[in-house]
Amino acid sequence: MSTNLEIHTKRCMIRRFKESDIDSFMEYRNDMDWMRHQGLKGLTKQKYADILLGEKSLKSGVQLAIVSKKNGDLIGDIYLKQEKDSCWIGYSVRQSEARQGYAYESVNATINYLKENGIKSIEAEVENSNYSSIKFLNKLKFNCVHSDQDRKIFVLHL
Question: What kind of fold does domain 6-157 have according to CATH?
Answer without folding.
Answer: Aminopeptidase (3.40.630)
